[in-house]
């Protein structure tokens, strides 16, 4: 009997099914209906009685109250979004005091949104507890002054769903979703992955083939563009791809600082999701809002190129430490730039003007011994 009356665990008890099945099975298996009967009847290890289950669909943990706090249109109007850095204490924990200061400098500089726990914010070096905590902290402290976009993407659809549920539950305004990386999937798999997370709230899809090893082709974006929560794409492939989307009315943010000016003013991009704005938010705001800024763009290009002389966020972490706005603490595997590159940054600051950068201290080269590398955190 036990081998016949089994089913997969994890589905919900239905009172009518349980009562009817118990009656049909006779007195030996009848149970009085009570609160205790709500728990599935265990028959053998990992098995549950058919009488105690019903095959309901999985219901995502969504709330219309949270989801409707910010409309998709509120996100698509943002021109300057900063992929914000996460600073650390010497033991590797978050330095929330320094983080709060960074966010305030972004608000003062004109940034309209921040990506929390993205590549620049080292979300991949966080536990999900840390990640969701930082999203919630940002919303609670700054959510009325800046849009908080949580990076809750993953190469596991199950994990992306769970993290996004949690992110919207703690109040984030939108989610950033990468395509599955390393364990790459098919075109149909990409569409299914994004369709699984889009119903939860406003969503930006992030295409960066240099990191994921797989381009998200236009066919995928067009397939999911009809979702009301589809805010747009952070696109790193280049101007031609940007133009392909903007011609179809799809909102695009450039993911490349050194291309964002032309993407914005020549190819129809809405704005930029920027690394450089961690350092010069006011100038990046001007670049996105003032059309006649080709000269400013040329002035900023050396900084933008320097920021990507090694994989991001190595240079940014180094620069913010040199400016004295964060402690010179790195979570491994990231290590600071070599001294010659640090000296180059000081010269770039002098060329652009110290007054245009965040913080008040003079830019310093710093000694190698000033940096703390943390392997356990």
Automatic annotation (TrEMBL):
Gene Ontology terms for molecular function: 4-hydroxy-tetrahydrodipicolinate synthase activity
A Gene Ontology biological process term: lysine biosynthetic process via diaminopimelate
Pfam families listed in its UniProt record: DHDPS
Pathway annotation: Amino-acid biosynthesis
Domain of life: Eukaryota
InterPro entries per UniProt: DapA, DapA-like, Schiff_base-form_aldolases_AS, Schiff_base-form_aldolases_CS
Keyword list, A-Z: Amino-acid biosynthesis, Lyase, Schiff base
Similarity field: Belongs to the DapA family.
Name the record gives this protein: 4-hydroxy-tetrahydrodipicolinate synthase
Organism: Zizania palustris (Northern wild rice)
UniProt lineage: Eukaryota, Viridiplantae, Streptophyta, Embryophyta, Tracheophyta
